[in-house]
Amino acid sequence: MDWLKRMNGAVSYIEANLMGEIDYEIAAGIACCSVYHFQRLFSFIVEIPLSEYIRRRRLTLAAFDLQGSDIKVIDIALKYGYDSPEAFARAFQKTHGITPTMSRNLGVSLKSYPRISFQISIKGAEEMNYKIVQKEDFSVFGVEEIFSTENDENHKAIPALWKKAIDEGIIDQMIKASGVHWNNSSKGIKPVNAVMCYRNTGGTTFPYMLYAISPKSGTPEGFASLDIPAGTWAVFTTEEHTVDQTAEHVQALWKRIYSEWLSTASYEHVNGPEFEMYGVSETKNEFCEIWIPVQKK
User: Fold this and answer.
1) List of residues 6+ apart from 39 with CB closer than 8 A
2) What is the pLDDT of residues 134-165, one digit of tens each?
3) Are 22 and 73 in contact (CB under 8 A)?
4) Which of 86, 180, 209, 266 could form a disulfide with 191 if both were Cys (CB 3.0 to 4.6 A apart)?
């Protein structure tokens, strides 16, 4: 399948450059996606960040070099991208549990992380419901921040943004400015949701906005504005859950989208705005819809 060939091609590029500079833009280009989506897809499927995979592979090869030669530690450190033997020694000990010098002794225990390869895995008969939606262009307003995917920093920073917006009353301000009537007895999609990846911010970063639909009067004062172009989205919905389970269910659904649906669907992901829309069901439980921009293969 094309998806598998592209992902394995990206891994081949990474493996060929473990002793040099790895350009995430090149790797993502081979996979035919943005750096952000390549890192995200990799992390969801492999279950470790791309940067951590590269670190483990380099330290695996470094251990082989140390045991099989009398090359100086500083030369091996430089070979695998470390600026100093001290930084290399710290990383090596964190991974293998011993110093680089000790690794040359016979009988010591070391860790080996093999090269990965992407394959289709049959995981069972659990259904995955989705729908294809086309929308005309529309405008939103809200609060924007730029996040980094390095070391999964966004997984901590995004919940912090939501907490800050709630604690400081920003969410309530947005609801009032949008003109939508919402209270504790309301059901359906909430007035304030999240949109991301609507423009290229470069490298390993992506834009993220807490948004509400713009009122007819225009963008409320003090908020950023964003025009969403017409497009086609695949829409997926989590199971109903409690508020404290939201992050868990959303991340699990993202993982299934990337690892199961996109690898076999007749649609492919394209660059464009992605949405997380949060709602309240008839039974007063929470649910979330994930919208990803797609096109027919």
Assistant:
1) 24, 28, 49, 50, 149, 204
2) 999 999 999 999 998 877 778 789 989 999 99
3) no
4) 180
166-206-21 Cα angle (round to 5): 140
Q: Which CATH class is domain 130-296?
A: alpha beta
Paired tokens of 216: 């007819």
Backbone angles phi, psi at 22, to 5 degrees: -105, 115
Mean pLDDT of 87-115: 92
Task: Determine the pLDDT at residue 167.
Answer: 96
Q: At what angle do helices 246-256 and 35-46 cross, to 10 degrees?
A: 100
pLDDT for residue 129: 84
pLDDT: which is higher, 126 or 109: 109
Query: What are the residue ranges spanned by the domains of the chain?
Result: 2-104, 130-296
Q: Is the pTM of this model over 0.85?
A: no
Q: How many helices (H) and strands (E) does the chain have?
A: 10, 10
Choosing among 3.30.300.20, 1.20.58.2050, 1.10.10.60, 1.25.40.10, the CATH entry for 2-104 is 1.10.10.60
Token representation of residue 270 = 């394209």
At residue 190, the pLDDT reads 96
Same fold, 2-104 and 130-296: no
State the Rg of the chain over Cα. Answer: 23
**Which pLDDT does position 255 carry in this prediction?**
86
Residues 6+ apart with CB under 8 A from 287: 237, 238, 239, 240, 241, 278, 279, 280, 281
Give the mean pLDDT of 32-49: 85
